Amino acid sequence: MTPPHGLFIVLEGIDGTGKSTQSRQLAEWFRDQGREVIASREPTDGPWGAKIRATAATGRLSPEEELEYFLKDRREHVEQLIAPALAAGKVVILDRYYFSTMAYQGSRGVDPGEIRRQNEAFAPVPDLLFILDLDVDTALSRIGGRGDTANEFEKHESLTKCREIFLGLAGEPFVHVISSGDGPEVVQERLREIVAGVV
Ligand SMILES: Nc1ncnc2c1ncn2[C@@H]1O[C@H](COP(=O)(O)OP(=O)(O)OP(=O)(O)O)[C@@H](O)[C@H]1O
Ligand SMILES: Cc1cn([C@H]2C[C@H](O)[C@@H](COP(=O)(O)O)O2)c(=O)[nH]c1=O
C-alpha cells in the first residue's frame, strides 16, 4: 500500500513566541489521528547544533561562521531525518528551519535572500510555514516567565529585526502569520484549522 503523502510543517518566530508549545500540541493532534509524526527542532541536538547552542552562553560566532554552522547542521538534519521521513509519508513538524537563519543571521547583516538561496539548494520547502508573531517585549517576558534569562541570541534590538524579516515572508502561498498573543489553546486551534484545510 502506498504510504500517505508526507506533510512538512514548520513553525517559526522569535524566541518566546510559543513554537515549542505549539509544535508539541500539533504533533499530539496528528498522532491522535493515527499519523506517524517526526517532531524535531533546529539547531538540532547533533554535533553542530550543540556547538551552536553553546555559543548562546559563551558568546556568538561571527555571522558568517554562524551561517556555516547552521548550514552544516541542516544538511545533516535533511539527509538523516527530514527527507527520509517525508519519503516514508510521515508528518514532519519542525521548531525552526532555514527561515530562522534568514531572520537571525539576516539581522546581523547577511543577505536573507542569499541565505534562502543557499538553503533551498538542498533543503525542501515546507508545505506549511507558520510564523508565530508577538511583540518583542511580551516574548522576552515569556522567556523570563519560563525561568530562563535572555541569552546572546535574545537581545531586544536584534529580535526586533528578526521579527521584521519573518513578517517579510507574509503573502507567500505556504506562509501563515499567526498572532501568538492569545492563549495557547486559541493559537493551536488556528493552526489546526489551517492544517485541516490542506490535509
Ligand atoms: N499563547 C501563549 N500565551 C502565554 N504564554 C505562552 C503561550 N505560548 C507559550 N507560552 C509560554 O511562553 C514561554 C515560551 O514558550 P515556548 O518555549 O513554547 O516558546 P518558543 O517560541 O519555543 O521559545 P524559544 O524560541 O526561546 O525556544 C513558555 O513558558 C510557555 O509556557
Ligand atoms: C535555526 C536557527 C536558530 N537560530 C537561533 C534562534 C535561537 O535564539 C537559537 C536557539 O534556538 P531555540 O529556539 O532557542 O532552541 O538559535 C539562529 O540564529 N539561526 C538559525 O538558523
From TrEMBL:
Matches recorded under InterPro entries: P-loop_NTPase, Thymidylate_kin-like_dom, Thymidylate_kin_CS, Thymidylate_kinase
Ranges of residues in domain Thymidylate kinase-like: 11-189
UniProt keyword Transferase, yes or no: yes
Keywords of the record: ATP-binding, Kinase, Nucleotide biosynthesis, Nucleotide-binding, Transferase
Record-level Gene Ontology MF annotations: dTMP kinase activity
PANTHER family on file: THYMIDYLATE KINASE (PTHR10344), UMP-CMP KINASE 2, MITOCHONDRIAL (PTHR10344:SF4)
Protein name as it appears in the record: Thymidylate kinase
Annotated source species: Luteolibacter soli
Gene: tmk
